[in-house]
Design goal:
mainly beta, 5-stranded mixed beta sheet, 27 strands
């Protein structure tokens, strides 16, 4: 090749190189700046739109966008190649990568701690790392599953849910707005003994917690005590503005009669309508039995009354009428233990001498009444 040919080839190569350089930097608005600012063509695929890079004077870089608000802003999908060996930690830097063995996205901090960003499963979820994006498993529909303790108002939650606040109002509120919905449920599926506390409210103002209210695993409730021995135990005064009604294991039975009854028998017979049957569901306990016949009258003579439980006499009294037509009140009572199971309580009477015995006044039910009552003593 002669010298002229070589010279022409050299000139042609230089021109081509200059044209390529002009094409590459022609998009930059300030190509002389270091780094150059503006948009520049960095390459293109055949029959595809040109791909651009935008470099701002502050060093921020935009790919596919000229709004580079961070050091690197990418408009579009960012594709990361999988790595078979995770990168080592670098002081002052965090690293994001995709593992080849599971295809998941990970973050490694400067201390070498690795976090699965697809399904976070490590450590306590508190106010600090929740704000940093370290959530639990996204179960869909806006629901998250937190593997560790959750703290609201604290970065060191000691329990599964810890809410700390220093305000004058309420710390937390649970509101159910569905008419067919429910409120709060606390389930105990393991231990139903009194050794476990299902729910507790304490006064910790003096740094020495005092129990205000507790529900034990057995269902016993204590107010002012941590060891209720019955379904409800209150240590302190109890004020009730309405009635205390008996439950299925308590007794409160009564029968009464306002019509007149009479007998001339000298043997013990049942006073009409003065019998109470205790059901077999009675669990046993102390009871009080009262019998009152407001106006017992008779022809002159002596008469006896008694209360029996299953035929056994538990109370009796004697009445003596001096003049025919006189009226007397008969009152009998018994206090004692009534064993569990069914029982029959009766009032009986008989005359010792004299004429007919009458129970209740005839013709005036406003003040004439015979009544038998039995009630358990709580």
């Amino acid at each position: 090749m002669d010298k002229v040919t070589k010279l022409l080839i050299s000139i042609l190569v230089g021109v081509i190189a200059s044209l390529i350089a002009v094409v590459i930097i022609s998009g930059f608005s300030n190509p002389a700046q270091n780094p150059p600012e503006g948009a520049g063509v960095i390459g293109s695929e055949e029959n595809a739109p040109a791909q651009t890079i935008f470099i701002k004077s502050d060093g921020n870089v935009g790919i596919g966008t000229n709004s580079a608000n961070e050091k690197l802003t990418v408009e579009g999908v960012l594709s990361l190649d999988e790595v078979s060996t995770p990168p080592s930690a670098t002081t002052g830097y965090g690293k994001v990568y995709v593992k080849a063995d599971d295809g998941k996205l990970y973050f490694k901090d400067s201390s070498g701690n690795e976090f699965d960003l697809t399904t976070y499963t490590g450590g306590t979820v508190s106010a600090a790392n929740v704000s940093a994006g370290e959530f639990g498993s996204n179960t869909g529909g806006g629901d998250y599953s937190f593997p560790g303790n959750v703290g609201i108002g604290t970065t060191s939650p000691p329990n599964k849910l810890s809410v700390y606040e220093n305000i004058t109002g309420w710390v937390a509120r649970i509101r159910q707005q569905n008419a067919n919905g429910y409120g709060l449920i606390v389930e105990n599926t393991e231990d139903t003994s009194d050794s476990k506390e299902l729910f507790k409210v304490v006064d910790n103002t003096d740094y020495s917690p005092q129990s205000l209210f507790v529900i034990k695993g057995s269902g016993n409730v204590g107010i002012g005590t941590t060891s209720p021995g019955v379904k409800l135990e209150v240590v302190g005064n109890l004020k009730v503005s309405e009635k205390v009604l008996p439950g299925s294991s308590r007794l409160a039975l009564s029968v009464f009669r306002t019509s007149q009854a009479a007998t001339t028998s000298t043997s013990w017979t049942d006073v009409p309508d003065m019998t109470i049957s205790i059901p077999s569901t009675w669990t046993g306990g102390d009871v009080i039995i009262l019998y009152t016949d407001v106006t017992c009258r008779s022809e002159s003579g002596r008469h006896n009354f008694r209360i029996t439980i299953d035929g056994a006499v538990v109370a009796r009294t004697h009445v003596r009428i001096m003049d025919t037509g006189d009226q007397h009140n008969v009152n009998l009572h018994y206090v004692g233990n009534l064993s569990a199971g069914a029982h029959t309580i009766k009032v009986q009477w008989k005359k010792v001498d004299g004429g007919t015995i009458y129970s209740s006044c005839e013709g005036n039910s406003d003040y004439c009444e015979a009544r038998l009552s039995v009630a358990s003593i709580m």
